[in-house]
Design a protein that fits this description.
The chain is an all-alpha fold. 83% of the residues lie in helices and 0% in strands. Helix 1 packs parallel to helix 3, helix 2 packs parallel to helix 4 and helix 3 runs antiparallel to helix 4.
Amino acid sequence: MTAGDVAMVVSLAGSLFFSISPDAARSKVLLYLLVSFAPFAVVAPLIGPFIDRAPGGRRLIIQLTAIGRAAIFVAMIFHLDDLVLFPLAFGVMVLQRTYGVARSALIPHV
């Protein structure tokens, strides 16, 4: 999971902050900031009840989030210069948040 986080930061840094001029980057950086805060403000309260109702429990959710993040990272490789990168980054952050909630719920059981 940590390697995936590093890969996302590197891909976003290379696409947003180093490859375009500062004047052109303002709108993209604002869009990135909005997308990066959305999982915490909007999606996070919905994840807990979903994990509690999921068949197979928290371990299955942890495995599915890891597989989903890997698939999205592969898709991000092909869309570094497109606006498709932002929804993909949003998906990664939602899955990252889901993983964190599931892991926190699983630790007391272990």
